[in-house]
């Protein structure tokens, strides 16, 4: 059977389109591929003795099983800054199910972000699979889903180590430490930003904030905690996107509020939250008591409570959220007298009304 001449031309044209589109796609990927910088062991201050033995065990077992695995995130950042990390995170090309098969002391958590928690008594090593880009990926609603405002409701697209570095929030949190050789990999300029004290979002700031509005809170928290400055392009969209926090579940906002205000720099964090219009979505009731000059009784109480809390943390004293959060919930204290600021007491029941 002989095909009509028009059909032959159509097939040839379609074939040419496929070839050209493939070449364009490969060219775009080559341009988009990040330049990797490797920092050798002698050029950074990370020491093996400062890393959790359990984290090293997780890396070793994953590597022995044939998987790539790296320390990543705040743990690597803090080690490079000479600080003691509170926890250690691992990123790998092993899927959550593959991680679970390697560790009997492992459980899978999360629906939005599927993670593996490897438990060593009270210590939990969080293991995440390399994340991939959503654009152009063939996925269903069980792996990738966005809300109307662009928020990622599900983010279980797996990818390469390069894509994973680009998918992280801030450049300073994207640095990876390799167990063998103890080298640090930098795909997005995180080392330079760390040295210059800059909080910089990876990718288009507005898109990344819409994917996860909590990133706005994290930018402020890291700036206050690490005494860094937020880059102009990272800071610019925050005030106009602050209302996106209203879409975050209250339980997650509560957890983030504790991180913001109980890290030893709560007062500085509070000032930045107000500067970027982020305090109102967190504690909507309390803004009714605020004044333009910032000198209302409620504002003075909050400032005093946060300063006292910061002092307690610096002196390694316990901090109770029952003392910290009620004044931020907008409930009047029992005694407003100025002399009673340090001894003011709020009913515990106000915690149930947060925010």
UniProtKB/TrEMBL annotation:
EC code(s) of this entry: 2.7.7.19
All residue ranges annotated as the Poly A polymerase head domain in the record: 69-200
SUPFAM superfamilies according to UniProt: Nucleotidyltransferase (SSF81301), Poly A polymerase C-terminal region-like (SSF81891)
GO molecular function, one term: poly(A) RNA polymerase activity
Gene3D superfamilies from the UniProt entry: Beta Polymerase, domain 2, cca-adding enzyme, domain 2
BP terms from Gene Ontology: mRNA processing; polyadenylation-dependent RNA catabolic process
Chain ranges of the tRNA nucleotidyltransferase/poly(A) polymerase RNA and SrmB- binding domain: 227-288
Family stated for the protein in its record: Belongs to the tRNA nucleotidyltransferase/poly(A) polymerase family.
Protein name (record): Poly(A) polymerase
Species this protein is from: Salmonella enterica subsp. enterica serovar Sanjuan
């Amino acid at each position: 059977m002989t095909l009509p001449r028009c059909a032959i031309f159509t097939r040839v044209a379609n074939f040419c389109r496929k070839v050209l589109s493939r070449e364009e796609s490969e060219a775009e990927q080559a341009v988009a591929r990040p330049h990797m910088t490797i920092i050798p062991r002698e050029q950074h201050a990370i020491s093996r003795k400062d890393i959790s033995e359990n984290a090293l065990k997780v890396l070793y077992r994953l590597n022995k099983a044939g998987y790539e695995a790296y320390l990543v995130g705040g743990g690597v950042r803090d080690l490079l800054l000479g600080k003691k990390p509170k926890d250690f995170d691992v990123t790998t090309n092993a899927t959550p199910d593959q991680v679970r098969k390697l560790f009997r002391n492992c459980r899978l958590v999360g629906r939005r972000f599927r993670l593996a928690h490897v438990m060593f008594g009270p210590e939990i090593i969080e293991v995440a699979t390399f994340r991939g880009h959503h654009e152009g990926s063939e996925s269903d609603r069980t792996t990738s889903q966005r809300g109307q405002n662009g928020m990622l409701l599900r983010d279980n697209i797996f990818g390469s180590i390069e894509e994973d570095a680009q998918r992280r929030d801030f450049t300073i949190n994207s640095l990876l430490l390799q167990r063998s050789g103890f080298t640090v990999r930098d795909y997005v300029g995180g080392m330079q930003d760390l040295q210059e004290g800059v909080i910089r979002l990876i990718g288009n700031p507005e898109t990344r904030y819409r994917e996860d509005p909590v990133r706005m809170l994290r930018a402020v928290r890291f700036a206050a905690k690490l005494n860094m400055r937020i880059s102009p392009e990272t800071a610019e969209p925050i005030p106009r996107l602050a209302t996106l926090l209203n879409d975050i579940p209250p339980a997650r906002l509560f957890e983030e509020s504790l991180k913001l205000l109980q890290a030893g720099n709560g007062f500085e964090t509070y000032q930045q939250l107000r500067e970027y219009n982020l305090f109102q979505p967190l504690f909507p009731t309390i803004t009714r008591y605020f004044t333009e000059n910032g000198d209302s009784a409620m504002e003075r109480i909050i400032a005093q409570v946060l300063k006292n809390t910061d002092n307690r943390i610096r002196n390694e004293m316990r901090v109770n959220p029952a003392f910290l959060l009620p004044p931020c919930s907008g409930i009047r204290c029992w005694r407003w007298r100025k002399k009673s600021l340090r001894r003011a007491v709020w009913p515990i029941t106000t915690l149930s009304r947060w925010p």
